[in-house]
Write a structure and sequence with these properties.
This protein has helices at residues 2-10, 12-39, 49-52, 57-65, 141-170, and strands at 76-77, 81-84, 89-92, 108-111, 116-119, 121-125, 130-133. It is rod-shaped. By secondary structure, the protein is an alpha+beta fold. Strands 1-2-3 form a 3-stranded antiparallel β-sheet. The protein has a two-stranded antiparallel sheet with strand order 4-5. A two-stranded antiparallel sheet has the order 6-7.
């Protein structure tokens, strides 16, 4: 209570103006992150000649015999990477290590909602209708983390503003907060 009273007596206009600009800044950051989340690349493996060919023997057999793909129960793993039997793309190894062995391609996951393979998949967000993927701040994970953090900061700003309003009402002031 002493801190709130001290702030409103010493810095009433500065605090109000700061809260106003803080709300504008939080809104701008949220909009930028929302745009990045919606149009940023989550790490989807796009279909191309390089990502679809050569077809593994098991897939060729199913296609040539006209069978249903449901007989293939698991992704096909080879030295090149893994071949997703649901979206029919290769999920290639990331790079060669110095020893010459390949890095495993286990950073991929097939999203059952989007029906696409995504590198460093975290989850499919029902709110944004997108796969959220990436490590650290890469992919669209950085936008997702920042937009969630901005939401929490917006809540703190809201409660701080409410505290100021309630304090002024309790003191019987008739002025409004801009």
């Amino acid at each position: 209570h002493f801190g709130t009273e001290l702030l409103t007596h010493i810095f009433p206009d500065v605090l109000r103006l700061s809260l106003r600009y803080l709300v504008y800044t939080e809104a701008a950051v949220a909009i930028i992150c929302l745009l990045g989340l919606m149009w940023g690349d989550a790490g989807v493996v796009h279909r191309s000649v390089e990502s679809c060919f050569p077809l593994p023997e098991q897939v060729l057999d199913v296609l040539n015999e006209g069978k249903d793909f449901s007989i293939l129960k698991e992704n096909i793993v080879s030295d090149e990477g893994s071949f997703c039997i649901r979206c029919l793309v290769w999920r290639r190894h990331d790079k060669l290590q110095e020893s010459g062995s390949r890095v495993r391609s286990d950073g991929f996951h097939h999203c059952s909602i989007c029906q696409r393979c995504v590198r460093h998949f975290d989850h499919h967000c029902g709110v944004f209708g997108r796969c959220i993927a990436g490590r650290g701040l890469r992919g669209n994970m950085g936008y997702f983390i920042i937009i969630i953090t901005t939401g929490f900061l917006g809540g703190i700003t809201l409660f701080t503003t409410w505290a100021m309003v309630l304090h002024e009402v309790a003191k019987g002031r008739n002025e409004t907060i801009p």
